[in-house]
Specification:
The chain is an alpha/beta fold. It has a domain of 158 residues. The strands form three sheets. It has a five-stranded mixed beta sheet. A two-stranded antiparallel sheet has the order 1-6. Helix 1 packs antiparallel against helix 5, helix 4 packs across helix 5 and helix 13 runs antiparallel to helix 18. The relative contact order is 0.12. The N terminus is likely disordered.
């Protein structure tokens, strides 16, 4: 037979090797695709995401705020710490723990790589909760591993999505009812998800509650007493959600959840974005639309197959035998389908932001339609191995193509980042500094407008390496992060009253207002600036203030793209 070894040799027969390959292809394909996604994050010298350096800086300040010596005193002068629980603190705490034993670069690599692995594992876990043969669909998580919001550096949101998948997967496995231990695990998963981000937590909570309600309806239709059905399927989730729900109420009542006016209402382009998966997948090049459309096409094909009514009961009976089991599995299918539809409607109708405090709302919502759609498709996945292999192969190819399209831009950004970080040795420990940028990020082939700028907050990464204070540390001006600029010591507001001029190209700042209090100024890209930038009135003014109060003391290597200016009358450390 095909499963036996050759007699007397201990070797597998050809039929056995073919059978092994057929059984293991999902694992091999998934691990191969995962390795491709991890490679840029782990092998390139620096993790480059827009907000990532600011997150690392916040964690470093949190870790060293109480230190003795000049650096600790400097941090206490410029920063205040707020450890009240908010749904935006998980990765800050994780980074602080990692920075105690790793370099800043290595710590950030662990956080990003950890998210990628956790996302794939979370989707695999949830899929297996839907149907034990659906784990191969976890390759659908791979295109998200380097997508838009990951490159923006929204680490808390990304970790929140991965943890939400585990919470939903745990609930999907509780078709027969909840135990006290099961409710305890769900409560922990929801707390972790809440600590990362409120939106994934909300989605997970709604899906878990929906699964419970659907199963109650199914059991009652099978003649189970309503009270018993409610206790079996809803009591556990109700108890589990109480701690995180209490934190949510405290967050909202305490005023930390306040937001500004809604802006950026949707148009027809939002529909195209959903159908092509432009959001959430495309980062910086129009060429990325090709793999995003391929992913959308595969998911559409899986949806068509999953909607074929002749196959549904047969497939459900394989995953959940027995009348009650099939009924609950069918109820789960309805809930997952409804959740997919509602998430798509939410994306199509939501504003882009609720004030500056809650931006990228539609971009965040864009993650949930494809992920929930994959879970719905798992309720009736393709049964033919060749169909599964084709779908999974296309998803891995699409995710790999996106990595290759982004690579040239990433390599260019790595060179620019190395240039900026090379001046860390020219800044003495305990110094305050601001970075003025006169040339923006150069995108790769066929750049799309807007998009993340991986060099925008690199100054905060420089602050960690130089053990100083970056006046442009963007985390420190918002109330929902754990570190913020202290009252009475905020150079940022004096330099940049609108809090948005320092990040502009060219910068719109009042350097004369902080001369004598700001130790160093770094000028980036003036030699590469476009003509209108060089001749802009604000450029002329800030350069005049710079030359009046500071003296150039160093330039970066190898191209001199960055110049370091020290306050006149001070000596370097």
């Amino acid at each position: 037979m095909g499963g036996r070894s050759d007699a007397g040799t201990g070797r597998r027969s050809p039929g056995s090797r073919v059978g092994w390959a057929r059984a293991r292809w999902p694992t091999v394909l998934l691990l191969t695709g995962l390795a491709v996604q991890l490679a840029p994050w782990l092998l390139l010298p620096v993790v480059l995401t827009q907000d990532g350096p600011a997150h690392v800086d916040g964690a470093w300040v949190l870790l060293h705020h109480g230190d003795d010596g000049a650096v600790g005193e400097l941090l206490r002068t410029h920063y205040a710490i707020d450890l009240d629980p908010v749904p935006n603190m998980l990765t800050t705490a994780l980074l602080a723990l990692l920075l105690a034993v790793l370099t800043p670069g290595a710590a950030e690599k662990v956080v990003v790589a950890g998210f990628v692995v956790l996302l794939v594992a979370g989707l695999h876990y949830a899929l297996r909760g839907v149907h034990r043969r659906a784990g191969w669909l976890a390759v659908a998580a791979l295109p998200l591993a380097g997508s838009e919001l990951v490159v923006y550096g929204f680490y808390n949101f990304c970790w929140g999505v991965a943890l939400a998948l585990f919470a939903m997967g745990w609930a999907l496995r509780r078709r027969d009812g909840w135990t006290l231990a099961g409710a305890g695990v769900l409560s922990l998963l929801l707390l972790l998800t809440w600590s990362a981000h409120l939106l994934p937590y909300t989605v997970a909570t709604v899906v878990v509650a929906g699964l419970g309600v659907g199963r109650v309806v199914s059991d009652v239709s099978c003649d189970l007493r309503p009270a018993r059905a409610v206790f079996r399927h809803l009591a556990g989730p109700a108890v589990a959600v109480l701690p995180s729900l209490a934190l949510s109420v405290g967050f909202l009542v305490g005023g930390d959840g306040r937001h500004g006016a809604a802006a950026g209402w949707p148009g027809a382009a939002r529909v195209a974005s959903l159908l092509t998966l432009y959001r959430p997948l495309v980062v910086g090049s129009w060429w990325e639309i090709v793999p995003s459309v391929l992913v959308a096409g595969v998911l559409a094909g899986l949806l068509v197959r999953a909607l074929r009514p002749a196959r549904v009961d047969e497939v459900l009976s394989l995953g959940a035998p027995g009348r009650a089991g099939v009924g609950r599995a069918r109820a789960d299918r309805v809930i997952l389908g409804t959740a997919t539809a509602l998430s798509a409607v939410g994306f199509l109708l939501s504003p882009e932001q609720l004030g500056e405090e809650y931006g990228f709302l539609s971009d965040r919502l864009a993650w949930f339609p494809p992920l929930l759609l994959v879970l719905f498709c798992a309720t009736a996945p393709p049964t033919r191995v060749s169909t599964r292999q084709l779908a999974a192969g296309c998803l891995v190819v699409a995710a790999t193509a996106a990595v290759l399209v982004r690579l040239p831009s990433q390599l260019h950004d790595q060179r620019d980042a190395a240039e900026v970080l090379s001046v860390a040795a020219d800044l003495p420990a305990g110094a305050t500094f601001a970075v003025l940028r006169f040339s923006g990020n150069r995108d790769g082939v066929a750049p799309v407008p807007g998009g993340p700028d991986p060099l925008r907050h690199l100054s905060s990464g420089l602050a960690v390496r130089a053990q100083g204070v970056d006046i442009g540390h963007y985390e420190a001006i918002y109330p929902y992060f754990q570190v913020r600029f202290a009252d009475g010591a905020e150079l940022r507001r004096a330099l940049d009253p609108g809090l948005d001029g320092l990040d502009a190209v060219p910068p719109w700042v009042h350097l004369a207002a902080v001369t004598g209090r700001l130790d160093y100024v770094l000028v980036v890209g003036l030699d590469r600036a476009q003509g209108w930038v060089r001749h802009a009135q604000r450029t002329t003014r800030v350069l005049a203030d710079l030359r009046a109060g500071y003296v150039e003391v160093a330039r970066s290597h190898p191209s001199g793209h960055v110049s370091v200016w020290r306050l006149q009358g001070e000596t370097g450390g």
